[in-house]
Amino acid sequence: MLPPELRDDVRTLWDYHDLGHELRRCDVGVGLGGHDLGVATHTAELFHAGWFPRIVFTGANAPTTVERFPRGEAVHFRAHALELGVPDSAVLLETRATNTGENITNTRDLLAAQGISAREVMLVSRPYQQRRAYATAKKLWPEAEFVCSARPLPVDEYVADIGDPDRVINMLVGDTQRITRYAELGFATPQEVPTEVRAAYDRLVAAGYTSRALPE
């Protein structure tokens, strides 16, 4: 469970990263790699619902995922999607990306090499990764239009599913910091950060949730 004294601040960040995009039919769904296999589950659900005819799973490994997904994030996500009834012919793999920017650019290049037109792209990610993924994609793949989707879970249910509150809070803090930092570095388009989001972020940093933060 989330520490009661932190719950309001965690929910503030959680809600900020949830873009609430309305789904529309896209040319491809891109399942962004990471530690959360629920991304693959949700990508498969969206495929079966007819939101896109083709999937790209993208991701190599990070220090936080190599033990869980030793063959690489995309490979394990694909295997899970196949178990859920997605046909192998509908899935492409991008297995080199080690960050969100590479997820986007490598997927763009893979589709181009395959001669696949992707003007409308659905980014499927962890719930708290939506805003950063969207800002990154708009910067690095400007010719495409994007809609984001993630499992529609309230934060307490997501934390219970992951089973590690500290990990989720640290990831939320890290993603919030990257919204501003990556825009400053030219990696992503700028995003407004409301005052209440900045205040919640600062309090969680002061509480010690900095393991996923970039050095200041």
Brief synopsis:
The chain is 46% helix and 11% strand. It is α/β, with parallel strands linked by helices.
Task: Give a written overview of the molecule.
This protein is of the alpha/beta class. It contains 8 helices and 5 strands; from the N terminus they run αβαβαβαβαβααα. Strands 3-2-1-4-5 form a 5-stranded parallel beta sheet, with helices on both faces. α2 crosses α3. The longest helix has 21 residues. The chain is globular. The two termini are 29 Å apart.
Compile the SSE list and pairings.
Blueprint: H1 7-17, E1 28-32, H2 38-48, E2 55-58, H3 73-83, E3 91-94, H4 100-113, E4 120-124, H5 130-140, E5 145-149, H6 155-162, H7 165-185, H8 195-206
Helix pairs in contact: 1-7, 1-8, 2-3, 4-5, 5-7
Rg is 17 Å
Query: How many β-strands, per DSSP?
Result: 5
**Main sheet strand line-up:** 3-2-1-4-5
- Tell me the structural class: alpha/beta
Helical amount: 40-55%
Defining traits:
216 residues; alpha/beta; five-stranded parallel β-sheet; 5 strands; globular
